[in-house]
């Protein structure tokens, strides 16, 4: 597993990006999706995921929807209108950061 | 009892997780809903545990920290909502019109009536928002009992209440300095109005998001 400190600052952006793509997701689904996309390289722990989700909800970037699934209730998270705008901003910011890092780490490599 | 992995938990097993959370003093339904679903989903997809009891035992710390962190975030989110609301009365053109109108009204009241009448009006304007807030908090009754987020609606008005306590018994002293008194009254009114606005907004959100748990 990769150095989790490197991912820590991007956790919120990862969550926002996934929700932008999938429309709505529940907590456990997010942890599994990240694991799947990164081929097990990045594992979001439950102790990190839920505080991040609750913070984004408190900031008004996410809204929740409680739905009955199988034999239990499930809390889904969705992007608000503000959340959609914020996702674009944060993704652009992350891309700029990756480019800058690339210039430092490997000046000859190009992201695009 | 043994469980076959990757099969859905039965109603009885879901109830078992829910009871475990109640045992850990997770009282609010909205918190339990999310935790039950997370723990059930993880157990259904994880092969290393055979017994549900064994799976749940090491989750105690996660459950405890989940509620604690949620409490902190909700509390501060609601307080931020109040302070943003107060700030609007000083920076938003629409709200500044209300601020100017309110200042003019308080000025007229202070200088047009006897200090006894002004005292009564002053106290009523500080108590009334608190009563409205209490009514909003209590209705519907299942909301604040079941939903943790609704619990913090009560704390939104703590700051505006301070004006009431600060004014208690000090009216005669305050009225001696009319400019200070009008400023104090204005701040109290603005805080109470912003507080009620935040309460209404938060309550609407809670009722919208957790409709299933309140009905």
Q: What characteristics describe this protein?
A:
heterodimer, A: about 110 residues, alpha+beta, Arc Repressor Mutant, subunit A, three-stranded antiparallel beta sheet, 5 helices, about 60% helix, globular, B: about 220 residues, mainly alpha, about 0% strand, elongated
If you had to describe this structure to a student in words, what would you say it looks like?
The complex is a heterodimer of chains A (112) and B (215). Chain A contains five helices and three strands. Chain A has helices at residues 4-8, 11-22, 27-37, 46-58, 81-105, and strands at 24-26, 62-69, 72-79. In chain A, strands 1-3-2 form a three-stranded antiparallel β-sheet. In chain A, a hairpin with a 2-residue loop joins strand 2 (62-69) and strand 3. In chain A, helix 2 crosses helix 5. The model of chain A has no long low-confidence stretch (mean pLDDT 87). Chain B has 215 residues and is mainly α. Chain B has a domain at 92-214. Chain B has helices spanning 11-23, 29-45, 52-56, 60-91, 93-112, 115-138, 141-146, 148-151, 153-156, 158-167, 171-175, 178-209, 211-214. Chains A and B meet through helix 3, helix 4, strand 2 and strand 3 of A and helix 2, helix 4, helix 12 and helix 13 of B.
Count of strand segments of chain A: 3
State the distance separating the first and last CA atoms of chain A: 26 Å
Largest sheet of chain A: 3 strands, antiparallel
Biggest contact: A-B, 26 and 31 residues
Kindly give the count of domains of chain A. 1
Major beta sheet, strand line-up of chain A: 1-3-2
Gyration radius from CA atoms of chain B, angstroms = 24 Å
- How much of the sequence lies in strands of chain A comes to 15-25%
Beta percentage of chain B is: under 5%
Summarize the main sheet of chain B: none
Element-level helix/strand string of chain B: HHHHHHHHHHHHH
The SS-based structural class of chain B is mainly alpha
| End-to-end C-alpha gap of chain B | 35 Å
